[in-house]
Fold each of these.
Amino acid sequence: METLMEMLPIILPLFIIQLILMVTALVHVLRHPNYRFGSRGIWMVVVIVLQIIGPVLYFAIGRGEED
Amino acid sequence: MRAYAAFCNKEFMESVRTYKLFIMGAVFLLLGMMSPLLARFTPAILEAVAGEMPEMVIIIPEPSAYDSWLQFFSNIGQMGLLALVIVFSGLTAGEIGKGTVINMLTKGLSRGTVIFSKLSAAAAIWTVCYLLSILAAFAYTAYFWGAHETHHVFLSFFSMWLYGILLIAFVIFGGILTASIYGSMLLTGGVVVVMMLINILPGARPYNPITLSGENALLLTAQRTVSDFAPALIVCAALILLLTAGSVAVFNKKQL
């Protein structure tokens, strides 16, 4: 696992982007209570558990209309 | 032409405000960075797992730059294109379903312009994000393996790009036809499944556009030649033109 520690600076950007994606989606879920379907709880789980595809799904089909 | 530019502009603004651009950029950047890393570390992870079970012997060849590109094309071809279809599923369906496009059509915007601007805006976003992932993958691959031999670089990447455009054309066509996001996604998904089934027939394989997203890595290592890809490229380009013309024709007839 020593190589993994060496590679940390290379892997780090990957985690950061993934985190940004998740946090952006999560903030949006919490701030906008209207969804096309599903509830806040469901979308929070989807966004946190499903890496990458979760936030994509939320923004593409879960996000409600702006009001 | 001014209407086209204005509507393209509106499409870009919309993709920024609906997070489409952000999502696409992040996903493709991630996929580009992930692929070389996966190729590099999978053997190490497998070894660590095998080390705990001494009775298991796994012989893993040393990963190479080729594995990295193999990963790249399989990630973009599956996860990337899935994200592309999901993100753009509401491209035409949303506005027709909600009726917001009627306002602009009554002001004299032609229906063809709507289709062409939507296609160009989506194509531009896909192109930029795809280039981003290629650059990321290239940087990581070069870092891990240094200079490596590749063949038909442009064609390998271009095939996947054209296949992405084909999917966008299907998404637009499905949206026009059904006026629903799910209809648009279902049509595109259905077409991909049909193309996978067609791929079972060996005779049809060279003409099947799905080849363009499946065998790019083989092209990169010269296990395939340009002539293996040419028929599929032509079929794919013809389908894109046909679908776009079809979308305009159906849209012109459609009661809004």
Amino acid sequence: MELVCPAGNLPSLKIAVDNGADAVYFGFRDDTNARHFAGLNFNDRSAARGMEYARAHGVKLFVAINTYPQPSGWPRWTAAVDRTAELGADALIAADIGVMDYASRRHPRLPLHLSVQGSATSHEAIRFYAERFGIKRAVLPRVLSIRQVTQVVGNSPVPIEVFGFGSLCVMVEGRCLLSSYVTGKSPNTYGACSPASAVRWQETATAMETRLNGVLIDQFDRDESAGYPTVCKGRFRVRGNVYYAIEEPTSLNTLSLLPQLQKMGVSAIKIEGRQRNPAYVGRVARVMRAALDECRRDPDGFSPRAEWLSELGQVAEGTQTTLGAFHRSWQ
Amino acid sequence: MTGGTVSSATGADAHAGAEGECGVRRLALGPVLYHWPRDVMFRFYETMADAPVDVIYLGEVVCSKRRALTQTDWLALASELEVAGKQVVLSTLALIEAGSELGAVRSICENGRFMVEANDMSAVQMLAAAGTPFVTGPGVNIYNSCTLEVLARCGLKRWVMPVELSGSTLHDIHAGRPPGVETEVFAYGRLPLAYSARCYTARARNLPKDQCGFCCREDPDGLLLRTREDEAFLVLNGTQTQSARTFTLAGELADIGAQYFRLSPQSQHMSQIIEFFAARLAGGQGPACEPGRLYQYMPTGPCNGYWNGTAGLQQPAGACGDA
């Protein structure tokens, strides 16, 4: 299984390469990618330097153009596709049908991957993109159980990539509008969930409140560490109880599932976190590299080492990890 | 109007269809998104058979475990509504996870008689592969004219615009709309905002999804989620999350270049809501046709921010506070 690592900037790209990534993915510095955050992503110069570094070390480079352009922004997306082709990237990761259509007609030699933002949860959905645009790989949303992933892998016309570690979207990616409902900007339209410009941290006499465009997402006691106000990870009142009504802030961690994923024929494991710092990228890449190598050597005897789990635990969101939807009981 | 293929629209002229700039404008009743008991569902559609809507979408869109009505029931209902003069469209499940769900979608796509609303790309692929004309629901991501064109080549006859897009984006997409494709906009109802593998209604009762006991039946308009300041914020509807506020385009209706206006069913006052929109479409004026008249029917107040290109929860000008 190929290890696909995130890069929000050049230092992250280099550290991912140095720590055993088989492929690195990044986006350009605008709303054409789903991690459109200030100070993040690549311009043409850093992209070229990243490409040079990846090539020198035999590592592949993927570019994510995985948001949904509206007519007014269309030229920005086609330009990003052109830049990806000029760069000589090993793949373009896209979600929008229009973007894929453009890329496959204009740059037929540029391999396409279906982004997780494309929301394809079945082999039939994947077939749509395979037949029309000749995609070479599909990334699955983080909502399927291990049995369901097995079914998709078994029937898919193209190789499958799944998420192995990182922040967990509990909603189907590409079909979650919670962020735009509150702020006007969503991953689909703007490339960011709960954009920083809408976030307010507010200290009161007894608590820290986190708000998104004025809406109270959570409040924390003084001894609690305040989490980022993503709508799905807030505490709300339902039937009189206040709790994490949608999802606790945890990270997805599939270390213990690697042998199963390998056996069923998953082609690549993706690490989430282009918005995280280089230290995160280096640490997760190193652990996953070691785990994937050991899994390949001895799948039957494989079990996650305590030091791997503790290393990943330290960089997990909410410092907890979960198997997420892979494990049926989570659902 | 272009592309008559979709509109068998029998008897439509007797109903709300009104001539506008872009031809006849019709009302569509979206699929029921909640888990209503069998008898409630039948009673509801009995009433709808006489209501001034031209198109009725039928089927379970949210959760495959809900089986108050079987596929046979839905088809029988479809036939009855067709006899009553409605154009019937069968809606598919929005999120496909299990192989059995894919099978259920396939059987709807292959029904051979009624038009199908594809609510995910699995259904789009099945219909396209079979050469069957289809409609796409609001959960299929069509954000630009190029996407619309590709899908038109696959057999798309009508699309429901994704709810987070604005009136101005609709205008732009229409500038490049392929011939033969009609547009429907979500015009009234709590907004479908997200889908998950996890059931939040079961979670609210500390029940595992596999033993949910169909507890979502207890919330005919979804389970209200409030912020810790008691603001009505979202609605949990099983694996679907909706807006607490009810989206409305009642005030904008006259200026929208779409052919169909979707009203999403709610458990109370649906007939009055339909009558209101029918009157508005027919050009009705006066106090009875004031958009604000609708607010009394909304469980927790109105919103229409998406249409204006801002936060979805933004309230229409002049609307006050929360319920």
